[in-house]
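Per reviewer request, we include the raw input and output of the structure prediction for the construct analysed in the revised manuscript.
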Amino acid sequence: MGHPAKNRNVNDPAPPAPRRSGFGWLWLVLLALLAFAGWYGWRSWRSHEADARAQIVDAEQRVALIEESVNALRRDLRSQAQRQQQADATNRVLRDELLGIGQRAALLEDNVSKLADPDRHGAQALRVDEVEMLLTSAAQRLDLNSDLDGARRSYALAAGLLDGIDDPAYLSLRQTLAQERAALDAVGADPRSVAAGRLEVFAATLQSLPERASAIEPSRLPWWRRAFGRIVEVRPTQGSVIVETADRAAGLAALQLELTLARAALERRDAAGYRTALRRVDAWLTRLWPDSAERRARRDTVRRLQALPLSLRLPVLGTTLQQLRTLRGAR
């Protein structure tokens, strides 16, 4: 009789293997550790990212503050530069004023010394200075604006002052002044005023020019023109006279513009510009009005206007002032 274990049938199932409970808990612990490590790493990364963002924002704020400080410094520098420029300009003005005061003081001192000189006869020196000033004023009035009336008044005042000087050395000066006054009185009116008045008269007479040629007597017309003259109007197509209404309006406007240019040249005493404008006026006369006695008369008037002088031409003007300065320099 054998051992019971040895007598077991081969077809009987094998006994179950024992459970390995210790290894399962180990895997669970490892998984928990891995999960904790991942969570801790993710949290650390988020904290680090938040710190980096905070540092970036802080850096941007600091850069903005620095830029504002730089802009404020630039504004301060600009204001300082402007104040420096204003101070320099004020200093220049003050320096110029001081120089002017010094020059005026020197002139006053010179005049006082001249008046104190017994050889100059103070009252007579003052009269001579006033005569020179009046003659200079008259010359400037004539040169700048051809002010004949103002120049005549200045010459009259200078002649009255010269008559009060008893020095015989100024006798020839009084004679020269009398000749210059006579030449100035003989001028009459200012040539520019004369030319301007004649130009205005000419411009006013342009409206009376006939716009059509003189009509031919019906008895001299051919039979076909007498028969159809009231029905058909015949106009030459090769003529230079403007006929259309719009073209005539433009031509009249151009003519008025040329007259305005001539007036402006008169004000400037620009003889070349004045004559050029009148030549264009003459050309517009031939374009706007047909040939007639009135148009020929207006063209003759234009030629006479072109020949008018615009400035004074008196060789004796200024001789008294020049002689006075030469006499004072010699004495």
